[in-house]
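Reply to dn_fold:

You asked what the input looked like. This is it:
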Amino acid sequence: MNMLTESFATKMVDAASHAGRNSMKTDYRAAHFSPPLLLLDMNGFIQECGQSVEKLFGYSQYELLWQHISCLFPKLGEVDLIQQGRLNPMLNYICHCDHIFEAINKQGGITVCNLNFFMVEHAGMKNLRLIVRPVAAANA
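and this is what came back:
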């Protein structure tokens, strides 16, 4: 190998090594990203939400408090979240099948998401925990 080829090969190995370190940092951050979470009462009204929700939808936490979940997911306004004291079985099923839900952000844009609902007890009351998982665009 001549000096020029050896130098080029060394630079390529260094660049690949550097890229690997950067992707590891990115993967670590992605793995520790807090998903958008909402705490809903049994009627679907937002009681708590985190900063990830603010970033995703553009609303402040205070703007969302005590708003119905249908302000973000209009189709959920047509669904009884709770049936006979339990999470709606059909809603639970389609969420586990990664059904796509359309969310409307503050600017009126649409974000497609998967949702997961869980019944939890919070402050001595039954509530719903909603995890929102934005779906990456296929061409992104």
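The chain is about 35% helix and 30% strand.
Hope that clears it up.
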